[in-house]
Here is the input.
Amino acid sequence: ETFKIDPALSQQIRFYKRLPKQIEERNERLKEEMLGKLKDLGNLVLRPFGLSTENFQIKQDSSTGSYSINFVQNPNNNR
Here is the structure.
């Protein structure tokens, strides 16, 4: 009944149903961009020491949710 009174309302409802997915996609793109820039910054700081972010492995403990960081001397040989 409401749609007969205001047909634009159905368009607005469809838009608002798509909005959370669009927001999530945008946030994911921003997160990937931010992590890439942080990795570049980390490499810039580590380069004078002959290291890169590839020399560090981050693992999450599934039972506690905590993270551990391990140093890897030759990261390309361990893959």
Observations:
- Residues 2-74 form one domain.
